[in-house]
Amino acid sequence: MENTAQALRHYFNGNGTPVTLGNNTINALVLSGDFQSRHQRIISGKSTSLNGSFSVNLTSNIFHVGRTNVDYSIKCVPGNCSVTYDLFVRDGFWDVDFINERFLKGAPLFQPDGPGPNLEMFGGTPYPYIPIRGTYTFPNPGY
Amino acid sequence: MKTYKILLVLTMILGVAYFTLDRQLYYYGKNDFNLYHRLPLKIKPEYRPDFEDGFVLKDKYGFTIAAKGNTYKFNEQDILINEVINYCFDAKKLIAHVVDVNGVKYHIEFLSNNEHQLKQEIVASVRNDGKAYSPNENKCINIKGNKKHIKRIELSRNYIMFVFTVLFIILCYKTIRKFKNSK
Fold first, then answer.
1. Neighbour count for residue B132 (Cβ, 10 Å)
2. pLDDT band for position B158 (cuts 50, 70, 90)
3. Residue ranges making up the domain that contains B129
4. Residue B145: Cβ-neighbour burial (10 angstroms; 0-12, 13-18, 19+)
5. Per-residue pLDDT reduced to its tens digit, A55-67
6. SS3 A102
7. Which chain A residues have a beta carbon less than 8 Å from that of B70?
8. Can you give the pTM of this predicted structure?
9. Could you state, in order of their start, the residue ranges of all structural domains in chain A?
10. Which residues of B fall within a CB distance of 8 Å from A112?
11. Could you read off the pLDDT of B31-75 as tens digits, one per residue?
12. Domain contains B68
């Protein structure tokens, strides 16, 4: 899946089956400034926690993904470390009614609930993205 | 003219009320505006139940530092955070009270890094004895036991925003009309 039109088609016809995002979408995330600046901090030894997450906003490039999550896990052996990224984790195409979410948040029926029934529209079925895993090895900067 | 003045004062009062409530919600990560930097070390609270399993504390670079999934060393063991219960802070440090995946409670103290061999800006030290935790000395924010109160503030803030927007539009309309009539 590479674009918002395909994402919408799957929302109405896909019965909620999980989807794998395409290479262009993965590249848009990995090459984004948000991701690269966090990656540089991780490989230069500046991350406070060895496991955690951050979010990357892709709304301007890939509208249907919007703001997504990246989990990271740093493991070190003497000399080397590796960081494993899980992209698009705990994310999917859901809570599409962003106007009511914005103005009526706080009311129980308008709380974002991921794959739950709140904030869905026109009979569409929310579906999750299948996370993509990638690992990068680098010299131990002092973790 | 009198209606116009009343409308103006009412709009201003609602504007002040809105920002007062939004400022309170900042501590729970539910603020609308990113105008407030009120935690030490530029730590930022966020609430995103649909993405990040609820409440998280992030550093200024957007990394979660106290959230479900963060790990820290304690007695040579990794502890994996499951939930943030509350947090306390003063001008220099923040202490998060967390529960790990085994249900054990810990306090994680976040301080500015003064050791040059470490590259992190914020260093975390974990305790489970409660010594770092003094609710009397620090301002504390209760996340888990305060959900109804937070929801009430959030709803009030949203209703105020709605009425404020309507009044603001009426006020703009009246101002334009007044301006045209005076020409």
1. 17
2. confident
3. 40-142
4. exposed
5. 999 998 888 888 8
6. helix
7. 49, 51-52
8. 0.84
9. 4-94+128-139
10. 48-50
11. 988 887 789 999 999 987 766 668 999 999 999 999 999 999 898
12. yes
The DSSP element (H or E) to which B4 belongs, if any, is helix B2-26
Residues of A in contact with B72 (CB under 8 A): 49
- The token duo for B165 is 């927007």
* Tokens, residue A89: 């984790």
* Counted domains in chain B: 2
Q: Which residues of chain A have pLDDT under 70?
A: 105-107
Q: Is residue B107 part of a domain?
A: yes
User: What is the arrangement of strands in the sheet containing A132-139, beginning at the earlier edge strand?
Assistant: A51-57, A67-77, A80-87, A132-139
Closest-CA residue of chain B to A92? B51
Q: Is residue B35 assigned to a domain? A: no
What is the DSSP pairing of strand A51-57 with strand A132-139? unpaired
Angle formed by the axes of helices B147-182 and B2-26, nearest 10°: 150
Together in a domain, B79 and B135: yes
What SS3 state is found at B63? Answer: coil
Name the β-bridge partners of A129.
Answer: A19
User: Which of B50, B63, B121 lies closest to A52 in CB terms?
Assistant: B63
Grouping H, G, I as helix, E, B as strand and the rest as coil, residue A43 is: helix
Q: Among A46, A54, A106, whose Cβ lies nearest the Cβ of B154?
A: A106
Which of A53, A65, A96, A104 to probe by mutation at the B interface, max B CB count within 10 Å? A53
Mean pLDDT confidence for B17-41 = 89
> Would you state the structure tokens that stand for residue A47, as one six-digit string?
């991350």
DSSP of A75-96: EEETTEEEEEEEETTT-EE---
Q: What is the pLDDT of residues B91-149, one digit of tens each?
A: 889 999 999 999 999 999 999 988 877 788 899 999 887 565 565 667 899 988 788 88
B20 lies in some domain: yes
Q: Quote the CA–CA distance of A59 and A69 in Å, as a whole number.
A: 13
